[in-house]
Amino acid sequence: MILVLLGPPGVGKGTQAARAAEAQGWHHLSTGEILRSEVEQGTPLGEEARSYMDRGDLVPDEVMVNMVAKRIRAMEPKDVLLLDGFPRTLAQAESLAEAAPGGAIAGALYFRAPDSVLEARLLARGREDDSAEILRHRLSVFRETTRPLVSWYQEQGVLVEVDADRSIEEVEKDVTQAVASLLHPSNSAH
Ligand code: AMP
Question: What is the pTM of this model?
Answer without folding.
Answer: 0.93
